[in-house]
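job 3f2a | input accepted
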Amino acid sequence: MATRRNYQRKKNGNDSPLHVLPVVADLIDYTLNLTDNAKHFPKKVRFTIVNRIQERVLSIYENLLEANEIFPIRNDSDKAKRLELQRAALTDCKLLLFYVELSKKRGYIDTGTFEYWTKKVLDVKYMSAAWYKSELEDGQKPPASQDESQA
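job 3f2a | predicted structure (151 res):
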């Protein structure tokens, strides 16, 4: 089954691949494999920790995909909604990092797993933050005047 490629849309009309979505998909796959393993996360923590971890990692993807789907940006409301979704994904990353750290403290994962999982989450967080920052900078630039565009 073919899927539509996702693109990070820019105001200048150029599309560049939105590289964060495949990275998030990889994080989801890793997280679900790890949290579904009863060796790491016993059934007694299924409703307290595992469900929250899984909800967060899926929410990151959902928020970034929805932000990417707001194109073209027609007005300030579209821009605000896109930035809001990006911020929500960043907040989810921070919550997920907390749950990963909690899992380590409670002894559900070892140090190697903790470091690898944290790196995966931080990769997503940094890529999302860079996209968010570029969106903010695009919004703060004044439109080019007619004289400058003809020069």
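job 3f2a | The radius of gyration is 19 Å.
job 3f2a | closed
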